[in-house]
Amino acid sequence: MEHRIEQIKKQLHAQSYKLTPQREATVRVLLEREDDHLSAEDIYLLVKEKAPEIGLATVYRTLELLSELKIVDKINFGDGVSRYDLRKEGAEHFHHHLVCTECGSVEEIIEDLLGDVEKIVETNWSFQVKDHRLTFHGICKQCQEAVVKSTS
Amino acid sequence: MEHRIEQIKKQLHAQSYKLTPQREATVRVLLEREDDHLSAEDIYLLVKEKAPEIGLATVYRTLELLSELKIVDKINFGDGVSRYDLRKEGAEHFHHHLVCTECGSVEEIIEDLLGDVEKIVETNWSFQVKDHRLTFHGICKQCQEAVVKSTS
DNA sequence: CTTAATGCAAAACTTTTGCAAAGTT
DNA sequence: AACTTTGCAAAAGTTTTGCATTAAG
Predict the structure, then answer these.
(1) B→A interface, C-beta within 8 Å
(2) Has UniProt tagged this entry with the keyword DNA-binding (chains A, B) (predicted)?
(3) Can you tell me the distance from the alpha carbon of B42 to that of B38, in angstroms, rounded to the nearest whole number?
(4) What does each C-alpha distance from A39 to A59, A95, B71, B76 come to in angstroms?
């Protein structure tokens, strides 16, 4: 954790940005909730517990900055809000996501399953791929089991 | 075109919805601009040319209805608006999209390139895939050529 | 005739911006 | 001192809702 903070601090300094207390508090929330996909509002409320004086605008500005530096990924699952997802250390791509249409849970796939598909796109569409967003919609393991139970 | 309208009319009636003139005008705009990815506002302005009395709220309600019936797909490319994409006849899945980070153009891939990946997800993550959203970000053919020209 | 759909305006949200004050180097 | 960052409030923008009126089957 401290190591990640240190690392992010360096990334910021490299572009002559500062790791202010507000930014650090925001990053800590993202680290603590690494598996979640929090909205700006969610993050704001959590950061407020650590740094009560922070403003929502600062959270937005921080998230935008972290997005630009590719420290977090901004994703949108189609409910009216943007969500923010911390990249794993050294990861070059967005995670893939599994969104359950029954219970709304979001699971992450860290592995990059798109290598072959990207090659096809580069070759057949002459499109130079830099990044991707892949989300599957369907039914998660838990909900599948729940259906089996309730109908048997 | 008339055939698609007829088909959509049946789909609506099957759920006891009506194909009102406003809904028909909206569908016609979507058909005419099938390759585009229009926002609700874009669609509203185009529908207004055919049916000047229509209200923006009706367009939103129509698009939501068409979304539910899986006649259109609602997508979000991360600029603050939702965009609407008519499904091809009989298509079961979202198209894939290629978004150019240089010029903002959006290209569609109709072919489904995710068959193998979906199998992997179903097997290794026990997730029952119903649909997917795949967008690549990168540099389109035209912009690649533009760079070559300007630097040579 | 009964229910569904529309248009308008207002409301609800999310996100961005302007600006004076505060903090950093 | 020069510059960046912050908090607040206001603004901007998109989408949804309430409700009286109109239209459809």
Answers:
(1) 74, 76, 78, 82, 98, 100-101, 107, 109, 113-114, 116-118, 120-121, 125-141, 144
(2) yes
(3) 6
(4) 11, 17, 29, 16
Cβ(B17)–Cβ(B8) under 8 Å? Answer: no
Burial class for A12, CB neighbours closer than 10 Å (0-12, 13-18, 19+): buried
Q: Give the model's pLDDT for residue B93.
A: 82
Q: Is the CB of A17 under 7 A from strand D?
A: yes
Tell me the pLDDT tens digit for each residue of B69-78.
999 999 999 8
Give the helix/strand (H/E) hosting B94.
none
CA atoms within 13 A on the CB side of B51: 18
Contacting residues for B65 by C-beta, under 8 A, at least 6 apart? B12, B17, B23
